[in-house]
Structures are given as C-alpha cells and as structure tokens.
Write a structure and sequence with these properties.
144 residues, Rossmann fold, 5-stranded parallel β-sheet, 5 strands, 37% helix, globular, binds 1,3,4-trihydroxy-5-OXO-cyclohexanecarboxylic acid
Amino acid sequence: MQVALINGPNLNLVGQREPQVYGSQGFEEFFPQLQKAFPSLELVYYQSNHEGELVDALQRLGASAQAILLNPGAFTHTSIALADAVAGIETPVYEVHLSNVFARQDFRKHSYISPHAQAVICGWGLAGYRLAIEGFLNLKEFKQ
Ligand code: DQA
C-alpha cells in the first residue's frame, strides 16, 4: 500500500526554519524514521516550493497512492488551485500542519484545503504525520 507525503513551500527548511514554531528536526532525518515505523507501507516523499508542481504531484500520486498526507504550507491559505486538485482526486487527503495554525495569526485560520480533506491534524509537530497514518490505517481496519 502506497502512502504519499507531499510538502509545500519552505517545508524543505524545517529543522532550521523558526525552530521554536516548527521544531528542530528536518525531514531528511524524520522521513526514514517514519518509513521504519510503518515497514509494510510504501511511503513516498515529495516536496516543492512551486504551486503548479504541487498540483502535478497531487494528480500523479493521487493515481497511485491509497492516502496522501498533504502539508501545503502557506498555500493552505491562498491556493484555489491546490484545493481544486485535492477535490479532483479520489484518494483521501489528510491535511497536516506542524504548528497549531489556530493559535497563530488570523490569516492562518482559513484553509482552502480543509473542506476537501478527509481529516486535518495540526499542532503535533512532525508526529502529526505519524498520527495521520495511524488514523488512516485504523479507519481502514474499522471499516473492514
Ligand atoms: C504550516 C502552517 C502554515 O501557515 C505555514 O505557512 C507553513 C507551515 C505548518 O506546518 O504549520 O509554511 O503549514
């Protein structure tokens, strides 16, 4: 079973970028740990700082993955194109934010993505990606 993690702009800098907000561990270190935690899954990682490339990735991985964990970064609050891409694919999309966006500036409280997401996780740091996978797997088991 393939699960794709798609990260938007500036998330390549997690670990160095505002560590008081986003933590001090980067994805280079975290992603292999996540793979180890779910050895039966084929976890795929994609990051881009460009909106159109993220649309392409959602369309491409939407055709192969059983679930997508999407952190759209600042595009969360601006991008109708990403919202349309999420709405347009069958694969459930789990919206993940490292920080608690509701405890920050007002402009971060609105997401164009959330109405089309299966679930939203925020404020758990990198553990949010693990929680999203666990939620997805539990839901699948519960439904069967
Ligand atoms: C973020 C929250 C966004 O508001 C911000 O623009 C990001 C990261 C998060 O993971 O907390 O780049 O998506």
